[in-house]
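User: quick one, fold this
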Amino acid sequence: MNNFKKTSLALIFALVTGFSAVSAFANPAVPFEQWLGEVRQEAIAQNINPMLVNKALTGFQPDPEIIRLDTKQPEFTQTYAAYSSKRVNKTRIERGQKMLVKHYDELKKASDKYGVAPQYIAALWGMETNYGGYTGGKDTVKSLATLAWHGRGGTSPKRAAYFRKELITALKIVDQGHITLDQMKGSWAGALGQVQFMPSSFMNLAQDGDGDGRKDIWNNLSDAFASAANYLAKNGWNDGQRWGREVVLPAGFDSNLVGSKKQLSTWKSMGIKLPNGAPIPVVPGMMGKVIAPDGMSGSAFLVYNNFHTIKRWNNSDKFALSVGRLADAIAAANPTLSGS
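Assistant:
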Protein backbone atom coordinates (compact mmCIF):
# COMPACT_ATOMS: atom_id res chain seq x y z
CA MET A 1 0.00 0.00 0.00
CA ASN A 2 1.45 3.40 -0.92
CA ASN A 3 1.90 6.21 1.59
CA PHE A 4 -1.02 8.21 0.17
CA LYS A 5 -3.45 5.33 0.76
CA LYS A 6 -2.06 4.73 4.24
CA THR A 7 -2.49 8.39 5.13
CA SER A 8 -6.02 8.50 3.68
CA LEU A 9 -7.13 5.42 5.59
CA ALA A 10 -5.61 6.74 8.80
CA LEU A 11 -7.44 10.04 8.34
CA ILE A 12 -10.76 8.30 7.67
CA PHE A 13 -10.27 6.10 10.75
CA ALA A 14 -9.49 9.12 12.90
CA LEU A 15 -12.56 10.97 11.63
CA VAL A 16 -14.86 7.98 12.21
CA THR A 17 -13.56 7.14 15.68
CA GLY A 18 -13.48 10.80 16.59
CA PHE A 19 -17.09 11.20 15.50
CA SER A 20 -18.09 8.16 17.59
CA ALA A 21 -16.37 9.57 20.64
CA VAL A 22 -17.99 12.98 20.18
CA SER A 23 -21.41 11.35 19.71
CA ALA A 24 -21.05 9.43 22.96
CA PHE A 25 -20.24 12.58 24.94
CA ALA A 26 -22.27 15.15 23.02
CA ASN A 27 -24.77 17.13 25.03
CA PRO A 28 -28.52 17.10 24.38
CA ALA A 29 -30.14 20.11 22.73
CA VAL A 30 -31.81 21.33 25.95
CA PRO A 31 -29.40 23.21 28.27
CA PHE A 32 -29.02 21.51 31.65
CA GLU A 33 -30.31 24.47 33.70
CA GLN A 34 -33.46 24.66 31.61
CA TRP A 35 -33.98 20.92 31.86
CA LEU A 36 -33.44 20.96 35.64
CA GLY A 37 -36.04 23.69 36.02
CA GLU A 38 -38.56 21.54 34.17
CA VAL A 39 -37.83 18.61 36.49
CA ARG A 40 -38.28 20.84 39.55
CA GLN A 41 -41.75 21.77 38.30
CA GLU A 42 -42.59 18.12 37.63
CA ALA A 43 -41.45 17.03 41.10
CA ILE A 44 -43.44 19.74 42.86
CA ALA A 45 -46.49 18.83 40.76
CA GLN A 46 -46.17 15.30 42.16
CA ASN A 47 -46.55 16.70 45.70
CA ILE A 48 -42.91 16.44 46.74
CA ASN A 49 -41.97 19.10 49.29
CA PRO A 50 -40.96 22.21 47.29
CA MET A 51 -38.18 23.06 49.76
CA LEU A 52 -36.69 19.61 49.27
CA VAL A 53 -37.03 19.85 45.50
CA ASN A 54 -35.30 23.21 45.30
CA LYS A 55 -32.51 22.09 47.61
CA ALA A 56 -31.96 18.85 45.73
CA LEU A 57 -32.20 20.18 42.18
CA THR A 58 -30.25 23.43 42.37
CA GLY A 59 -26.60 24.36 42.24
CA PHE A 60 -24.86 21.58 40.34
CA GLN A 61 -23.80 20.60 36.86
CA PRO A 62 -23.81 17.21 35.08
CA ASP A 63 -21.05 14.88 36.23
CA PRO A 64 -18.72 14.05 33.29
CA GLU A 65 -17.47 10.92 35.07
CA ILE A 66 -21.02 9.53 35.12
CA ILE A 67 -21.31 10.12 31.37
CA ARG A 68 -18.00 8.33 30.81
CA LEU A 69 -18.97 5.36 32.98
CA ASP A 70 -22.29 5.05 31.17
CA THR A 71 -20.42 4.11 27.99
CA LYS A 72 -18.17 1.50 29.62
CA GLN A 73 -20.38 -0.90 31.56
CA PRO A 74 -18.45 -4.17 32.13
CA GLU A 75 -21.49 -6.33 31.37
CA PHE A 76 -21.17 -5.14 27.77
CA THR A 77 -17.43 -4.54 27.37
CA GLN A 78 -15.84 -7.66 28.94
CA THR A 79 -15.90 -11.33 28.01
CA TYR A 80 -17.70 -13.57 30.45
CA ALA A 81 -14.41 -15.19 31.47
CA ALA A 82 -12.88 -11.79 32.35
CA TYR A 83 -16.06 -10.50 34.00
CA SER A 84 -16.51 -13.61 36.14
CA SER A 85 -12.86 -13.93 37.17
CA LYS A 86 -13.04 -10.53 38.85
CA ARG A 87 -16.29 -11.28 40.67
CA VAL A 88 -16.38 -14.98 41.48
CA ASN A 89 -12.87 -15.24 42.84
CA LYS A 90 -11.36 -16.90 45.89
CA THR A 91 -11.51 -13.77 48.04
CA ARG A 92 -15.18 -13.10 47.36
CA ILE A 93 -16.15 -16.74 47.77
CA GLU A 94 -14.37 -17.08 51.12
CA ARG A 95 -15.82 -13.81 52.37
CA GLY A 96 -19.26 -14.93 51.28
CA GLN A 97 -18.91 -18.20 53.17
CA LYS A 98 -17.96 -16.28 56.30
CA MET A 99 -20.81 -13.84 55.87
CA LEU A 100 -23.26 -16.69 55.44
CA VAL A 101 -22.23 -18.02 58.84
CA LYS A 102 -22.06 -14.61 60.52
CA HIS A 103 -25.49 -13.45 59.31
CA TYR A 104 -27.18 -16.78 58.95
CA ASP A 105 -30.09 -15.95 61.25
CA GLU A 106 -31.04 -12.85 59.24
CA LEU A 107 -30.52 -14.64 55.94
CA LYS A 108 -32.53 -17.67 57.04
CA LYS A 109 -35.37 -15.45 58.27
CA ALA A 110 -35.63 -13.80 54.86
CA SER A 111 -35.27 -17.17 53.16
CA ASP A 112 -38.10 -18.74 55.13
CA LYS A 113 -40.46 -15.83 54.52
CA TYR A 114 -39.87 -15.31 50.81
CA GLY A 115 -38.77 -18.75 49.62
CA VAL A 116 -35.27 -17.85 48.41
CA ALA A 117 -32.31 -19.92 49.64
CA PRO A 118 -29.82 -17.95 51.81
CA GLN A 119 -26.88 -18.43 49.44
CA TYR A 120 -28.66 -16.55 46.65
CA ILE A 121 -29.40 -13.57 48.89
CA ALA A 122 -25.77 -13.59 50.03
CA ALA A 123 -24.50 -13.89 46.45
CA LEU A 124 -26.50 -10.88 45.29
CA TRP A 125 -25.23 -8.94 48.30
CA GLY A 126 -21.69 -9.98 47.42
CA MET A 127 -22.00 -9.14 43.74
CA GLU A 128 -23.58 -5.76 44.28
CA THR A 129 -21.54 -4.29 47.15
CA ASN A 130 -18.96 -6.91 48.15
CA TYR A 131 -21.11 -7.75 51.19
CA GLY A 132 -21.64 -4.10 52.09
CA GLY A 133 -17.99 -3.20 51.67
CA TYR A 134 -18.75 -0.59 49.03
CA THR A 135 -22.25 0.75 48.52
CA GLY A 136 -21.16 3.69 46.35
CA GLY A 137 -20.20 7.23 47.19
CA LYS A 138 -21.87 9.12 44.37
CA ASP A 139 -24.54 11.73 45.04
CA THR A 140 -27.64 9.85 43.86
CA VAL A 141 -29.62 12.89 42.78
CA LYS A 142 -26.71 14.28 40.75
CA SER A 143 -26.04 10.88 39.16
CA LEU A 144 -29.65 10.35 38.14
CA ALA A 145 -30.02 13.92 36.90
CA THR A 146 -26.89 13.56 34.78
CA LEU A 147 -28.09 10.32 33.19
CA ALA A 148 -31.65 11.59 32.70
CA TRP A 149 -30.55 14.83 31.04
CA HIS A 150 -27.75 13.34 28.95
CA GLY A 151 -29.56 10.29 27.53
CA ARG A 152 -26.30 9.18 25.91
CA GLY A 153 -25.90 12.41 24.03
CA GLY A 154 -29.61 12.67 23.26
CA THR A 155 -29.55 9.42 21.31
CA SER A 156 -31.49 7.36 23.87
CA PRO A 157 -34.76 9.08 24.85
CA LYS A 158 -36.12 5.92 26.51
CA ARG A 159 -33.05 5.72 28.74
CA ALA A 160 -33.38 9.42 29.55
CA ALA A 161 -37.05 8.96 30.47
CA TYR A 162 -36.18 5.97 32.66
CA PHE A 163 -33.62 7.90 34.68
CA ARG A 164 -35.88 10.96 34.93
CA LYS A 165 -38.53 8.76 36.54
CA GLU A 166 -35.89 7.28 38.87
CA LEU A 167 -34.81 10.80 39.83
CA ILE A 168 -38.35 11.80 40.81
CA THR A 169 -38.73 8.55 42.76
CA ALA A 170 -35.45 9.18 44.61
CA LEU A 171 -36.83 12.51 45.78
CA LYS A 172 -40.00 10.77 46.98
CA ILE A 173 -37.89 8.35 49.04
CA VAL A 174 -36.24 11.29 50.78
CA ASP A 175 -39.57 13.09 51.15
CA GLN A 176 -41.06 10.03 52.85
CA GLY A 177 -38.26 10.02 55.43
CA HIS A 178 -36.49 6.77 54.54
CA ILE A 179 -33.15 8.59 54.28
CA THR A 180 -31.90 12.17 54.24
CA LEU A 181 -30.83 13.94 51.08
CA ASP A 182 -27.24 14.23 52.28
CA GLN A 183 -27.10 10.53 53.11
CA MET A 184 -28.48 9.38 49.77
CA LYS A 185 -25.31 8.06 48.16
CA GLY A 186 -25.02 5.17 45.76
CA SER A 187 -23.55 3.84 42.55
CA TRP A 188 -22.80 6.00 39.51
CA ALA A 189 -26.11 4.77 38.02
CA GLY A 190 -28.16 5.67 41.09
CA ALA A 191 -28.44 2.23 42.76
CA LEU A 192 -28.92 2.36 46.52
CA GLY A 193 -27.91 0.54 49.67
CA GLN A 194 -26.49 -2.85 50.55
CA VAL A 195 -28.24 -4.55 47.63
CA GLN A 196 -28.18 -1.64 45.17
CA PHE A 197 -31.86 -1.13 44.48
CA MET A 198 -32.83 1.50 41.94
CA PRO A 199 -35.28 3.99 43.49
CA SER A 200 -38.29 2.38 41.75
CA SER A 201 -37.27 -1.06 43.04
CA PHE A 202 -37.05 0.41 46.53
CA MET A 203 -40.52 1.87 46.27
CA ASN A 204 -42.06 -1.32 44.91
CA LEU A 205 -40.12 -4.07 46.66
CA ALA A 206 -38.15 -2.88 49.69
CA GLN A 207 -39.22 -4.55 52.93
CA ASP A 208 -39.10 -3.89 56.65
CA GLY A 209 -37.28 -7.06 57.64
CA ASP A 210 -37.10 -6.48 61.39
CA GLY A 211 -40.48 -4.82 61.93
CA ASP A 212 -39.16 -1.49 63.20
CA GLY A 213 -41.38 0.48 60.82
CA ARG A 214 -38.59 1.54 58.45
CA LYS A 215 -37.18 0.16 55.21
CA ASP A 216 -33.48 0.83 55.69
CA ILE A 217 -31.54 -1.02 52.99
CA TRP A 218 -28.50 1.14 53.70
CA ASN A 219 -27.70 0.16 57.29
CA ASN A 220 -30.11 -2.60 58.34
CA LEU A 221 -29.18 -6.05 57.03
CA SER A 222 -32.53 -7.56 57.96
CA ASP A 223 -34.23 -5.01 55.73
CA ALA A 224 -31.65 -5.45 52.95
CA PHE A 225 -31.92 -9.26 52.95
CA ALA A 226 -35.71 -9.22 53.08
CA SER A 227 -35.82 -6.71 50.23
CA ALA A 228 -33.49 -8.78 48.02
CA ALA A 229 -35.45 -11.97 48.70
CA ASN A 230 -38.75 -10.22 48.04
CA TYR A 231 -37.41 -8.92 44.73
CA LEU A 232 -36.62 -12.43 43.52
CA ALA A 233 -39.83 -13.90 44.90
CA LYS A 234 -41.99 -11.28 43.19
CA ASN A 235 -40.20 -11.94 39.91
CA GLY A 236 -40.91 -15.67 39.75
CA TRP A 237 -38.29 -17.40 41.90
CA ASN A 238 -38.83 -21.15 42.33
CA ASP A 239 -37.30 -22.28 45.61
CA GLY A 240 -37.33 -25.91 44.53
CA GLN A 241 -34.92 -25.33 41.63
CA ARG A 242 -31.34 -24.30 41.03
CA TRP A 243 -30.33 -21.38 38.81
CA GLY A 244 -28.66 -23.77 36.36
CA ARG A 245 -25.24 -25.41 36.08
CA GLU A 246 -22.09 -25.54 34.00
CA VAL A 247 -22.15 -28.32 31.40
CA VAL A 248 -19.99 -29.87 28.70
CA LEU A 249 -21.46 -29.97 25.21
CA PRO A 250 -20.85 -33.09 23.12
CA ALA A 251 -18.52 -33.04 20.14
CA GLY A 252 -20.30 -31.74 17.06
CA PHE A 253 -23.00 -29.95 19.06
CA ASP A 254 -25.06 -27.77 16.74
CA SER A 255 -24.28 -24.15 17.65
CA ASN A 256 -27.72 -23.18 16.34
CA LEU A 257 -29.19 -24.86 19.44
CA VAL A 258 -27.50 -22.36 21.75
CA GLY A 259 -30.26 -20.21 23.18
CA SER A 260 -32.90 -22.88 22.63
CA LYS A 261 -35.14 -24.05 25.46
CA LYS A 262 -35.86 -27.77 25.72
CA GLN A 263 -36.76 -30.33 28.36
CA LEU A 264 -33.80 -31.51 30.42
CA SER A 265 -34.47 -35.06 29.27
CA THR A 266 -33.96 -33.91 25.67
CA TRP A 267 -30.66 -32.22 26.46
CA LYS A 268 -29.53 -35.34 28.29
CA SER A 269 -30.39 -37.54 25.31
CA MET A 270 -28.27 -35.26 23.12
CA GLY A 271 -25.20 -36.02 25.23
CA ILE A 272 -24.84 -32.91 27.38
CA LYS A 273 -22.97 -33.82 30.56
CA LEU A 274 -21.66 -32.33 33.79
CA PRO A 275 -18.00 -31.21 33.88
CA ASN A 276 -17.09 -34.45 35.70
CA GLY A 277 -18.54 -36.51 32.85
CA ALA A 278 -21.72 -37.57 34.64
CA PRO A 279 -25.12 -37.18 32.92
CA ILE A 280 -27.04 -34.02 33.76
CA PRO A 281 -29.75 -34.48 36.42
CA VAL A 282 -33.26 -34.54 35.01
CA VAL A 283 -36.49 -33.37 36.59
CA PRO A 284 -39.48 -34.60 34.55
CA GLY A 285 -40.99 -31.79 32.51
CA MET A 286 -38.39 -29.22 33.58
CA MET A 287 -37.03 -26.94 30.87
CA GLY A 288 -33.54 -25.57 30.38
CA LYS A 289 -31.69 -23.37 27.92
CA VAL A 290 -28.11 -23.78 26.73
CA ILE A 291 -26.03 -20.60 26.72
CA ALA A 292 -22.41 -20.02 25.73
CA PRO A 293 -21.56 -16.43 26.70
CA ASP A 294 -18.10 -16.47 25.11
CA GLY A 295 -19.02 -18.56 22.09
CA MET A 296 -18.59 -22.24 21.40
CA SER A 297 -14.93 -22.22 22.45
CA GLY A 298 -15.79 -20.96 25.95
CA SER A 299 -17.73 -22.33 28.90
CA ALA A 300 -21.29 -23.58 28.39
CA PHE A 301 -24.19 -23.56 30.81
CA LEU A 302 -27.65 -25.08 31.10
CA VAL A 303 -29.86 -22.49 32.79
CA TYR A 304 -33.32 -22.78 34.33
CA ASN A 305 -36.15 -20.43 35.23
CA ASN A 306 -34.35 -18.97 38.25
CA PHE A 307 -31.56 -17.75 36.00
CA HIS A 308 -34.07 -15.61 34.13
CA THR A 309 -35.41 -14.32 37.45
CA ILE A 310 -31.90 -13.17 38.39
CA LYS A 311 -31.79 -11.35 35.06
CA ARG A 312 -34.82 -9.34 36.15
CA TRP A 313 -32.41 -7.85 38.71
CA ASN A 314 -29.75 -7.12 36.10
CA ASN A 315 -30.48 -8.01 32.49
CA SER A 316 -27.08 -9.54 31.80
CA ASP A 317 -26.19 -13.20 31.25
CA LYS A 318 -22.76 -12.49 32.72
CA PHE A 319 -24.22 -11.05 35.89
CA ALA A 320 -26.77 -13.83 36.35
CA LEU A 321 -24.21 -16.58 35.72
CA SER A 322 -21.84 -14.98 38.22
CA VAL A 323 -24.55 -14.73 40.87
CA GLY A 324 -25.47 -18.38 40.38
CA ARG A 325 -21.89 -19.61 40.51
CA LEU A 326 -21.11 -17.45 43.55
CA ALA A 327 -24.20 -18.80 45.32
CA ASP A 328 -23.07 -22.38 44.61
CA ALA A 329 -19.57 -21.65 45.94
CA ILE A 330 -20.93 -19.99 49.10
CA ALA A 331 -23.28 -22.90 49.72
CA ALA A 332 -20.53 -25.49 49.22
CA ALA A 333 -19.13 -24.64 52.67
CA ASN A 334 -22.48 -25.40 54.32
CA PRO A 335 -23.58 -29.04 53.97
CA THR A 336 -27.24 -28.14 54.57
CA LEU A 337 -27.21 -25.82 51.54
CA SER A 338 -24.80 -27.37 49.07
CA GLY A 339 -27.42 -29.61 47.50
CA SER A 340 -29.94 -26.82 46.93
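User: anything notable?
Assistant: Residues 127 and 331 are 15 Å apart (CA to CA).
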